[in-house]
Design goal:
This protein has about 450 residues and is of the alpha+beta class. The chain folds into two domains: about 300 residues, Orthogonal Bundle (2-methylcitrate dehydratase PrpD); about 120 residues, 60s Ribosomal Protein L30, Chain: A (2-Layer Sandwich). About 50% of the residues lie in helices and about 10% in strands. The chain is built from 20 helices and ten strands. A four-stranded mixed beta sheet has the order 8-7-9-10, covered by helices on one side. It has a two-stranded antiparallel ribbon with strand order 1-2. A two-stranded antiparallel ribbon has the order 3-6. Helix 2 runs parallel beside helix 18, helix 4 packs antiparallel against helix 5 and helix 15 crosses helix 17. The longest helix has 23 residues.
């Protein structure tokens, strides 16, 4: 049996920031900029408030900040809460080959750690990249052909803790054997079901992985042992969660090929599989400007996974609406733009939105790629407006540039911490490699200025 767990651990321990190519370090920075506004935006969302209310009184020392707020909790619960908040709008990154959301668990864990010990920005970025890379590779080993994994598993829940553990263990200076144990502790708690999608419970799955990964690193630092073959062993994670795994993909060309380059950043706060249809609707709305009230019918052709994951016909809340392709196509045709602003319960129930949503039909096309779509809009005057989207905005073929990521951060954070603080936050994130103390990112994210 190949020692895949140990090979991954050895790479994570031996890698140095200077070993990572400049373009990969830049991609890691982009992942941070894309993510950091999310927990700020949802820091007072009902889901976040309920989670804080459940656990705050049981928290240990107030060591780490809740982003966008003044309160602190212990590092484990801060990682948990910040990751919950970052998932709510479903606006995070997506590794397109596996549809995992890798940055949230890793960033939430090591930002909390950065307030417990001083971490140079360059080391923080390096750990973030290692954690994201490990998650994406593990997800490929579990779910990308020839691997076969049941789509009911929420794959971020199976991989997130391993990524967070590797990043935190790296920053804690663990040796190779301890890194193996950190991976083992994290993998022992892997879980997560997609049945939670469209509910508050969906956000718990990545959040647990952030907390569990951080805990795993601290346990491993105390030489808390686990099996050395926790991923590939006959009773390990791979055999438990897949019908067939592909662990060579976990370690193939480590340090040469980087899966983080296949990570995409969403232009829309909805499930990634909706983005082809949203892109087509926006192109029609922006270029041809049909009156939404004059739209008789909208027909969508999408990848089957779009309807499997986001086929909610009549969402009742904004949380449910993140998984409704019908809702977001209607909003795109009405607003002619998409931002975080429509993400509210009243907007979901607005009569114009509901009326247009109910005139939208969708059917799967097995031949489509995951971000491909056709949108056909029939008007009352008999005209037919059509767009075929080969690749959605935000995909690897049509990625958001750095300027768009900065604009996204402002869209998320300005109304919470103020435009000046958001500008400072963006500057610190883009210059993370030159910051002597990564906790400066947290200070800016909490509106504490030069703190």
């Amino acid at each position: 049996m190949e020692d895949y767990t140990r090979q991954l651990a050895r790479f994570a321990v031996r890698s140095r920031p200077g070993d990572v190519p400049r373009e990969i370090r830049h991609e890691g920075t982009r992942a941070l900029v894309n993510w950091i506004g999310l927990p700020i935006n949802a820091c007072r969302h009902d889901t976040t408030e309920r989670a804080i209310a459940a656990f705050a009184e049981f928290s240990g020392p107030r060591q780490a900040s809740l982003l966008g707020r003044s309160e602190k909790l212990d590092i484990f619960k801060a990682a948990f809460i910040n990751c919950i908040a970052s998932c709510i709008a479903d606006y995070d990154d997506t590794h397109l080959a596996t549809v995992i959301h890798p940055t949230g668990p890793v960033a939430s864990a090591i930002l909390a750690l950065a307030e417990q010990q001083k971490i140079a920005g360059s080391d923080f970025l390096h750990a973030l990249i290692l954690g994201v890379e490990a998650q994406c590779r593990l997800a490929r080993a579990l779910a990308v052909a020839p691997a076969k994994c049941d789509a009911a598993w929420f794959l971020t829940g199976l991989t997130g803790a391993v990524g967070a553990a590797i990043a935190a263990a790296r920053l804690l200076g663990l040796n190779e054997q301890q890194m193996v144990w950190a991976i083992g502790v994290a993998a022992a708690r892997a879980s997560g079901t997609r049945e939670t999608h469209g509910t508050m419970g969906k956000n718990l799955v990545p959040a647990w992985t952030a907390e569990e990964g951080l805990q795993a690193a601290f346990l491993a630092r105390q030489d808390f042992t686990t099996a050395d073959t926790i991923l590939e062993g006959p009773r390990g994670l791979g055999h438990l969660y897949t019908r067939e795994s592909n662990f060579p993909a976990l370690v193939a060309r480590l340090g040469e090929h980087w899966e983080i380059t296949r990570n995409a950043y969403k232009p829309f706060p909805s499930g990634i599989v909706t983005h082809g249809a949203i892109t087509g609707a926006l192109e029609i709305a922006e270029d041809l400007r049909p009156d939404p009230r004059a739209i008789r019918r909208v027909e969508l052709e999408v990848h089957p996974l779009c309807l499997h994951l986001t086929g909610r016909r009549a969402p009742r809340t904004a949380v449910e609406a993140t998984f409704s392709v019908y809702l977001w196509v209607a909003v795109a045709l009405i607003d002619r733009r998409i931002s975080i602003r429509p993400f509210s319960d009243p907007r979901v129930a607005q009569p114009l939105v509901v009326a247009l949503r109910d005139r939208i039909q969708a059917r799967p096309n097995e031949a489509f790629t995951r971000d491909e779509a056709i949108v056909r809009v029939s008007l009352d005057d008999g005209r037919l407006l059509e767009r075929h989207v080969a690749h959605a905005l935000g995909s690897s073929e049509r990625p958001l540039d750095d300027e768009a990521l900065t604009a996204k951060l402002h869209d998320l954070a300005d109304e919470v911490i103020g435009e000046r603080a958001a500008t400072l936050l963006a500057e610190r994130c883009w210059n993370i490699e030159s910051i002597p103390d990564a906790s400066a990112i947290v200070a800016a994210a909490c509106g504490r200025g030069e703190g």
